[in-house]
Design brief:
Layout: E1 12-15, E2 18-27, E3 30-40, E4 44-46, E5 49-53, E6 64-65, H1 67-70
Antiparallel strand pairs: 1-2, 2-3, 4-5, 5-6
């Protein structure tokens, strides 16, 4: 028996190391429901290399934590 799950804006799920929230967004003038990452619980990788990331930032460049920022 398959359980029916109805999600609403603001609901969260956990998916192998990332907490996702279902939110309504407008992209190219079209409303859609999208999963948005709200936090990370495990390692993240880019191009096969482990990286540390922020959940949000003011620019794409600031989404990753550089080792020089930790010093």
């Amino acid at each position: 028996m398959t359980k029916t799950i109805t999600l609403v804006q603001g609901d969260e799920i956990f998916a192998t190391g990332v907490v996702l929230k279902a939110l309504k967004v407008t992209i190219n003038g079209k409303e859609q429901i999208r999963w948005i990452a709200t936090s990370f619980e495990d390692s993240s990788f880019y191009d096969g290399e482990e990286i540390d990331v922020y959940t949000y930032a003011d620019s794409f460049e600031k989404l990753t934590i550089n080792s020089s920022e930790e010093d």
